[in-house]
Amino acid sequence: MTEQRQHKTVLLDEAVDALLAGAETAPQGTWIDATFGRGGHSRHILLRLGPQGRLLAFDKDPEAIAEAARIQDARFSIRHEGFRHLADLAPASAAGVLMDLGVSSPQIDSPERGFSFRFDGPLDMRMDTTRGESVAQWLAYAEVGQIAEVIREYGEERFAGPIAKAIVARRQERGPLATTAELAELVAGTVKTREAGQNPATRTFQAFRIFINAELQELQQALEASLSVLQPGGRLVVISFHSLEDRIVKQFIAEHSKEVYDRRAPFAPPKAMRLTALARIKPSAAEVTGNPRSRSAVMRVAERTQVPA
User: Tens of pLDDT along 98-136?
Assistant: First the structure.
């Protein structure tokens, strides 16, 4: 197996500081790490919680669940579920919610997970390898139009059409794609121009990963659920790593950070704002130098308003 790069948690101090800001020195409430990953943020939060504090984490990845089992702390628990299951929690039960939307280095650097074009492995890309279909299974039957739409929408790839046609032509001639190397080679042979320093397959791999894991849909569901779960004054902290995610987070916070008037009932009182936008934070130059994978990160911070929804 290829040696894995050690995972470095992005915006570690900044995220935890933002999440716990305004709380007492030793916070006693229940906090949510909605995307445990390899536990960098969770471990840092636990260092700051008081004896009565609680931390609940979520993650779909069985390897993340195995890593979480190493945390021997009675204040900590984790659910093997995606973070859309925030909706299952009681209203106003959380003092803060943290979402780190990045793929962890062990996931990227494990050939058997199929996330990266840098290593040859099965074309899988599932965050939860215990359920659902892999990218290879989907590509074995998907039609040209559907494949092109996924690549175009989730990869913002201008060569989506030719790539989709090449995938289906390959399937008809030699059988479906089965490995990351096969997909990367096919895309490289189809995409004739690309930004300097970027592998031609970058956007296609991103698109298939987002699609097969329903990442953007789950993000929307989790953000909506956070409005119910957060207590008044509770913080929402979200770290995004590409423009599609960040756009959703930005628009969500903006939508709920203003009073909404119903034009059909001009004399009715407005619907109260539910969030206050607080900050947009990027990694420091020093962090980007030490961890190049952090360079695209954007952290947005909002606070649940005191006014009942």
Answer: 999 988 878 888 889 988 888 899 999 999 999 999 999
Sequence letter at residue 85:
H
- The runs of H, that is alpha helices, within the chain are 12-20, 40-48, 62-68, 105-109, 135-139, 144-155, 160-174, 180-190, 202-212, 215-229, 243-255, 285-290
CATH classification of 129-212 is 1.10.150.170, yes or no?
A: yes
Residue 188 and residue 102: Cα distance in Å, rounded?
Answer: 25
264 Cα distance to chain centroid: 37
Q: Token pair of 26, please? A: 């030793």
Q: Check: pTM over 0.85? Answer yes or no.
A: yes
Residue 33 contacts residue 235 (beta carbons within 8 Å) = no
Give per-residue pLDDT as tens, 26-52. Answer: 678 999 999 999 999 999 999 999 999
**DSSP assignments along 217-281, one per residue:** HHHHHHHHHHHHHEEEEEEEEEEE-SHHHHHHHHHHHHHTSS-B--TTSTTSPPBPP-EEEEEEE
Q: Radius of gyration (Cα) for the chain, nearest Å?
A: 21
**Every domain of the chain and the residues it spans:** 12-105+215-304, 129-212
Structure tokens at 30: 């229940």
CA 95 to CA 235: how far, in whole Å? 7
Which CATH number, 3.40.50.150, 3.90.1720.10, 3.60.40.10, 3.40.50.11030, labels domain 12-105+215-304?
Answer: 3.40.50.150
**Strand pairing class (298-304; 230-240):** antiparallel
> CA 116, CA 110: separation in Å to the nearest integer?
8
Nearest-angstrom CA–CA distance, 56 and 116:
30
